[in-house]
């Protein structure tokens, strides 16, 4: 009788577990390529990242250059006497809106990714320790999380920024330390089930220490839900940063930020729609792209959704 073919091709001598791990990123990439929404979100996010990184070369004007006399509230596609075209018009101080949107992407992305990196790292560490050890560390961290969740995130961030003072570093720090609870809870729930698995008990029986169990065996198994949460959380942080900038608690002028551009342009909505509408569209498209990518990553990385 002919031997059946192995369902997972692997090089000679490669353990089955290693072959299984090797197929996970391939499956995820295959699922992402099939998801048109995720690809569209990836294109949008990459366009925003490239624009922010290449802002000095892409921006047609200095984003802080003012000309109240000749270029105030000029409409999109307006051309000056010198032949300079303001593709998205100018604001109430004569500053080029396209240049300010491009430079403002730097602030939004820095806050979004920076705050998520801080909150995700903190939440992962807390969730691993609380879920694995249990006892008083679990009670302490979870009760701290319950207390923090009792305060609305926006109000807590406003209070902290008002006390410390607005700046880019402060925004990243405040949004990061106020958003770790969700990561900690998800990771803790995963670790509570994983710590009872046979392979964890085997590692402990063979003399493996707590650090090895946490970093080599538990952490890789909880990264998937954490990565999906982090991807979607970047969009949430961008919205929070825009809200704080809108209230005057974000990066201070003349540094361009999408939220502060909205605040400056709202008083001219009746006579000039572009100073407020165009930064709002930038926020909407960026958040939409990140959410589409996050949904695609969730579908690709969650094995429970792989039915075929």
SSE diagram, text form:
Elements: H1 16-34, H2 36-53, H3 55-58, E1 78-79, E2 85-86, H4 97-133, H5 135-149, H6 153-164, H7 168-177, H8 181-194, H9 198-205, H10 210-246, H11 258-265, H12 274-301
Antiparallel strand pairs: 1-2
Question: Any descriptors?
Answer:
elongated, MetI-like fold, 308 residues, mainly alpha, single chain, 68% helix
| Weakly predicted, low-confidence segments | 1-21
**What order do the strands of the largest sheet run in, or round the barrel if closed?**
1-2
Terminal CA distance = 28 Å
Strand content: under 5%
Question: In percent, how helical is the residue content?
Answer: 55-70%
Instruction: Give the biggest beta sheet.
Output: 2 strands, antiparallel
Please count the beta strands (DSSP E, at least 2 residues each). 2
Structural class: mainly alpha
Tell the overall outline: elongated
CATH topology tier name: MetI-like fold
Number of domains: 1
Instruction: Please identify, by name, the CATH architecture.
Output: Orthogonal Bundle
Computed Rg: 24 Å
Order of helices and strands: HHHEEHHHHHHHHH
Query: Roughly what is the average pLDDT, rounded to an integer?
Result: 85
Q: Supply the CATH class.
A: Mainly Alpha
Q: Count helical runs.
A: 12
What is the H level of CATH, i.e. the homologous superfamily?
MetI-like
């Amino acid at each position: 009788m002919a031997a059946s073919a192995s369902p997972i091709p692997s090089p000679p001598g490669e353990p089955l577990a290693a072959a299984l791990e090797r197929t996970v990123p391939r499956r995820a990439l295959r699922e992402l390529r099939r998801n048109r929404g995720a690809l569209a979100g990836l294109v949008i996010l990459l366009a925003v990242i490239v624009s922010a990184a290449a802002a000095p070369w892409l921006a047609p004007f200095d984003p802080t250059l003012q000309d109240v006399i000749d270029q105030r509230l000029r409409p999109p596609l307006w051309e000056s006497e010198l032949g300079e075209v303001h593709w998205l018009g100018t604001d109430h101080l004569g500053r080029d809106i396209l240049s300010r949107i491009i430079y403002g992407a730097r602030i939004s992305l820095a806050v979004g990714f920076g705050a998520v990196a801080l909150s995700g790292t903190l939440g992962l560490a807390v969730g691993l320790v609380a879920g694995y050890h249990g006892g008083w560390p679990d009670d302490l961290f979870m009760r701290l999380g319950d207390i923090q969740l009792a305060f609305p995130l926006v109000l807590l961030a406003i209070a902290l920024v008002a006390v410390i003072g607005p700046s880019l570093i402060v925004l990243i720090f405040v949004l990061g330390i106020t958003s770790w609870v969700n990561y900690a809870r998800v990771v803790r729930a995963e670790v509570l089930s994983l710590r009872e698995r046979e392979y964890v008990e085997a590692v402990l029986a063979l003399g493996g220490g707590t650090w090895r169990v946490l970093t080599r065996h538990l952490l890789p198994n909880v990264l998937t839900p954490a990565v999906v949460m982090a991807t979607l959380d970047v969009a949430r942080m961008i919205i929070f940063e825009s809200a704080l900038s809108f209230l005057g608690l974000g990066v201070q002028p003349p540094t361009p930020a999408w939220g502060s551009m909205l605040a400056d342009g709202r008083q001219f909505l009746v006579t000039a729609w572009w100073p407020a509408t165009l930064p709002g569209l930038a926020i909407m498209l960026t958040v939409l792209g990140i959410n589409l990518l996050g949904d695609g990553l969730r579908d690709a990385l969650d094995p429970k959704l792989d039915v075929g």
